[in-house]
Design goal:
mainly beta, four-stranded antiparallel beta sheet, three-stranded antiparallel beta sheet, 4 helices, 12% helix
Length: 190
């Protein structure tokens, strides 16, 4: 489930649930709407997983932040709700080959889902906006990747890495440790 708060359209008191991760000052100065992804915690409670808001690495653009601590190999989210674009292939090579046939403007984050009788290819850019599609690429930067998108659309924290929980008292430097960063891969950029 996703919840969104828009600093232009929504009153500040509607953002009260976000005070666990953002200060009131940050909310007042927010340039972009803020989205939070929740999952069913299993005891009739909803647990926050990720937050989509202005990137600490790329001001003016979205980034994906951790609403809780994620450590190596832990599932951060998924991009499994994107539209199907093709079927009949299998694995990473098939995705790379499919993307090689796309024009530059059509590149996206593709993933496969196993279905009875084969695989289907889905476009991650059509997934929930508060999910992993807002995680930024480390290409051409000094940032270290802390997460990866698996071929089946699951998004996980890399082994040996941590994605810290966003807190309202963090400096911009420390906020960068809470942002999920992964490598889109050469096929995305070619």
């Amino acid at each position: 489930m996703e919840l969104w708060w828009d600093p232009v359209k929504d009153p500040l008191h509607h953002a009260a649930p976000l005070l666990r991760w953002y200060s009131e000052r940050e909310l007042r100065g927010a340039a972009l709407p803020i989205g939070a992804t929740f999952y069913d915690g299993g005891r009739a409670d909803w647990v926050a997983s990720t937050l989509a808001s202005e990137s600490a690495h790329l001001p003016g653009e979205y980034g994906l932040f951790a609403a809780q601590l994620f450590v190596g190999d832990e599932l951060v989210g998924s991009m499994q709700d994107g539209p199907q674009v093709s079927d009949g292939g299998c694995g990473k090579k098939w995705v790379v080959d499919y993307m090689a046939g796309c024009t530059r403007g059509e590149k996206s984050y593709y993933y496969t889902i196993i279905r009875p009788g084969g695989f289907t290819l889905h476009d991650g850019a059509g997934c929930r906006p508060a999910g992993p599609r807002n995680a930024n690429d480390a290409r051409g930067t000094l940032w270290a990747c802390n997460s990866e998108l698996l071929v089946d659309g699951l998004f996980r924290c890399l082994d040996g890495k941590r994605i810290e929980r966003l807190r309202p008292d963090m400096s911009v430097t420390h906020r960068r440790q809470c942002e999920a960063v992964w490598e889109y891969g050469e096929p995305f950029w070619s």
